[in-house]
Amino acid sequence: MSTPVSTTGLPPAAFALAAHAVEATGVGKVFTTRAGAVTALEDVHLTIGAGEFVALIGPSGCGKSTLLRLIADLDTPTSGELTVFGRSPRAAREAQDYGIAFQQAGLLPWRSVRANIELPLELHGVGRSGRTVRSTELLELVGLTEFAGHFPHQLSGGMQQRVAIARSLAEQPSLLLMDEPFGALDEMTRERMQTELVRICAESRAAVVFVTHSIPEAVFLADRVVVMSPRPGRIAEVVPITLTRDAAGRDEDLREDATFFAAVTRVREALHGDGHVRAARGVDVR
Ligand SMILES: Nc1ncnc2c1ncn2[C@@H]1O[C@H](COP(=O)(O)OP(=O)(O)OP(=O)(O)O)[C@@H](O)[C@H]1O
């Protein structure tokens, strides 16, 4: 089998057409700690379309990772309703509707690059030849064909992150959940990875929810930037990004473009400008 299908029986891309990627209605999350209740999220309303790239930005502790974890079914909301492709996050996870990539690449050191990429396929019973076909495609997609037989410790941080992204795409998810995946990279590698991610998303047509502290990163990548307010995290503003794209996504020249700077300013104002976010600590506005 060369093309994994979701357990719904529908190819993920076809299922993605059937519903919004994410729909949050009045979502709240309260953590109970020994020091008392911590309200991480309050009354979050957000709809993310199939194939849409949404960046979440906001001060440290405003609940960005919590929202991502709720979507990923790594935790559950305490109020409101959350659906992923029209069903519960649990059902979406079981149907392998999404892939996850976090700040740490989280590769298994004893497995080769190819074997790391193939791991989700192996866990879900895809046969050897199907796995080989898919991992070959993905190695090419992330530009690591020549490193298929290498082990994680033989790769740079950026290359490890590309392996993690390839692994998250292995099952052709309709939704990618990314929590500061480039946070630990140097600035040059980070910009290269952003350009590659835009290209990869244009090709895979997955929706993406991308948590970042960097305004330029959010603007370069996203169709919409969701600006969150300090705890309890709410959506302060949603900034649409209308930068020119060609079929392959966005290119490097865009970073020098006046429309890019205007969008960066717009997001910065949303973070600082209207009193929703007074102390935007932890947000990189460079
Ligand atoms: N498991 C938990 N138990 C108790 N409190 C938690 C838990 N997870 C998160 N929190 C609290 O919820 C709030 C939101 O945390 P979260 O990690 O979602 O923020 P964030 O916006 O991703 O922050 P950062 O930008 O610093 O990564 C914080 O006050 C945090 O302390």
Automatic annotation (TrEMBL):
PROSITE patterns: ABC_TRANSPORTER_1, ABC_TRANSPORTER_2. Residues 22-255 form the ABC transporter domain. It comes from the Bacteria. One of its GO terms (molecular function) is ATP hydrolysis activity. InterPro entries: AAA+_ATPase, ABC_transporter-like_ATP-bd, ABC_transporter-like_CS, ABC_transporter_ATP-bind, P-loop_NTPase. Keywords: ATP-binding, Nucleotide-binding, Transport. Signal peptide: none annotated. This is ABC transporter ATP-binding protein.
